[in-house]
């Protein structure tokens, strides 16, 4: 997975205090959620099995990432696709406290019926876009970029792929495509 590093999701007590000293004070609820996420451990095999019970089979490279990082903010955030340059904000956590927005579960609730069936969100991108992992048997592990600006007008978009672009054949390939955003 090239030389990527991942900053842990959430904030430590030290980081929260540093933000307050810099004039960016978080409200009590947000501070608690960020601290709680920072203190959350990585997913276990059982946690991943629960995810697979909901979404279907998950590729081994993605399972390994979840077990070692539980999401995170990558040190390189630029993804060049055929159509554009995209910014990846964070890879979503599997294990997260209730109410933490950068989690797979939270994004699945928000985007239910809006993203194609047999996919689920694994990363947040600029402007409300997502990175999806395909769990369909013929395309297992394929990574899609989902552009919310062109989502379906239908109430159920479970078979709508017109606003997606395949960006990698696997999660490992996706990570290897991330580069530094020097702009």
TrEMBL record:
Domain Knr4/Smi1-like: 42-177
InterPro entries membership: Knr4/Smi1-like_dom (IPR018958), Knr4/Smi1-like_sf (IPR037883)
Domain of life: Bacteria
Pfam entry (one): SMI1_KNR4
Leader sequence residues: none
SUPFAM superfamilies: SMI1/KNR4-like
The protein, known as: SMI1/KNR4 family protein
Organism: Variovorax guangxiensis
Lineage, broadest ranks: Bacteria, Pseudomonadati, Pseudomonadota, Betaproteobacteria, Burkholderiales
């Amino acid at each position: 997975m090239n030389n990527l590093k991942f900053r842990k999701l959430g904030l430590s007590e030290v980081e929260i205090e540093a933000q307050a000293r810099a004039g960016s004070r978080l409200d009590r609820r947000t501070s608690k959620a960020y601290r709680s996420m920072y203190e959350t451990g990585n997913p276990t095999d059982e946690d991943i099995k629960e995810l697979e019970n909901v979404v279907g089979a998950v590729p081994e490279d993605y399972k390994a990432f979840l077990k070692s990082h539980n999401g995170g903010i990558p040190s390189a955030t630029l993804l060049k696709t055929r159509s554009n340059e995209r910014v990846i904000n964070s890879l979503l956590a599997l294990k997260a406290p209730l109410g933490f927005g950068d989690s797979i579960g939270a994004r699945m609730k928000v985007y239910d019926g809006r993203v194609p069936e047999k996919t689920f969100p694994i990363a947040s991108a600029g402007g409300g876009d997502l990175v999806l992992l395909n769990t369909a048997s013929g395309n297992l592990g394929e990574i899609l970029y989902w552009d919310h600006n062109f989502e379906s007008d239908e109430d159920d978009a479970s078979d709508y792929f017109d606003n997606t672009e395949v960006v990698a054949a696997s999660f490992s390939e996706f990570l290897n495509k991330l580069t530094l955003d020097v702009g």
